[in-house]
């Protein structure tokens, strides 16, 4: 029996395999990941929640997520094996944006690794959890398309009013002609012509 491919034209949805069922054999090994969001915030509450959920190993980044470097997250991803499930206390601890979250969970799915968020009670190893993530991906694409459409409409309206985007032009036609007239002079470089004309 073949499975029909799920695709939505123009969507950046991760592969349809995000919705595919997991194999019947799972390792049942839960690996936790925690991250502080502000300086001075404690990881204790997150680590306690991950421990209570049954995580065998917990990785924790102790610096704010604004910093792109999250060495413990990289180590966590390297540690995970097919059949494992990554557990986070809440979605905000894992991804910085919805698009970032969808991309990372899609990458886990392609590696046959489950994902669970305790606070949101989201588990991608279940059909319902996969459906929720599919809806998230569709909403993220919808929002992106609304932003792009709004930007295009705004630029078109500005052009209709005679406004153009970008910085004002520095070189007018008269200045350009003067520069071209000076260019054939072998004693002048492009830099000296630019300095001369301001």
* Helix and strand sequence: EHEHEHHEEHHH
Kindly report the average pLDDT value. 80
Roughly how many Å apart are the termini? 73 Å
Helix content: 40-55%
The tally of strands reads 5
Indicate the overall shape: elongated
Under CATH, the homologous superfamily of the domain at 16-140 reads: Resolvase, N-terminal catalytic domain
Q: C-alpha Rg, in Å?
A: 26 Å
CATH class of the domain at 16-140: Alpha Beta
- Indicate the structural class: alpha/beta
Q: Can you name the CATH architecture of the domain at 16-140?
A: 3-Layer(aba) Sandwich
Quote the CATH topology of the domain at 16-140: Rossmann fold
**The biggest beta sheet, please?**
5 strands, mixed
Strands across the major sheet, in which order? 2-1-3-4-5
Low-confidence stretches: 1-16
Count up the helices.
7
| Approximate strand percentage | 5-15%
Description:
The protein is of the alpha/beta class and about 200 residues long. It has a domain at about 15-140: Resolvase, N-terminal catalytic domain (Rossmann fold), CATH 3.40.50.1390. The chain contains seven helices and five strands, in the order βαβαβααββααα. It has helices at about 45-50, 70-80, 90-95, 100-110, 125-160, 175-180, 190-195; strands at about 30-35, 55-60, 85-90, 115, 120-125. It has a five-stranded mixed sheet with strand order 2-1-3-4-5, with helices on both faces. Strand 1, helix 1 (about 45-50) and strand 2 (about 55-60) form a beta-alpha-beta unit. Pfam families: Resolvase.
């Amino acid at each position: 029996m073949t499975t029909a491919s799920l695709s939505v034209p123009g969507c950046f949805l991760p592969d349809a395999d995000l919705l595919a069922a997991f194999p019947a054999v799972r390792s049942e090994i839960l690996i936790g990941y925690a991250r502080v969001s502000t300086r001075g915030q404690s990881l204790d509450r997150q680590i306690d929640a991950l421990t209570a959920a049954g995580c065998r190993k917990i990785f924790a980044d102790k610096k704010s997520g604004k910093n792109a470097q999250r060495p413990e997250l990289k180590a966590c991803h390297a540690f995970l094996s097919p059949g494992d499930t990554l557990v986070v206390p809440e979605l905000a601890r894992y991804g910085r944006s919805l698009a970032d979250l969808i991309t990372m969970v899609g990458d886990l799915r392609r590696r046959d690794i489950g994902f669970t968020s305790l606070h949101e009670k989201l588990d991608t190893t279940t059909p319902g959890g996969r459906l929720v993530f599919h809806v998230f991906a569709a909403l993220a694409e919808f929002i992106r398309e609304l932003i792009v459409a709004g930007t295009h409409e705004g630029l078109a309206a500005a052009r209709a009013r005679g406004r153009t985007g970008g910085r004002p032009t520095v070189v007018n036609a008269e200045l350009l002609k003067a520069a071209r007239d000076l260019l054939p002079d072998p004693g002048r470089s492009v830099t000296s012509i630019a300095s001369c004309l301001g």
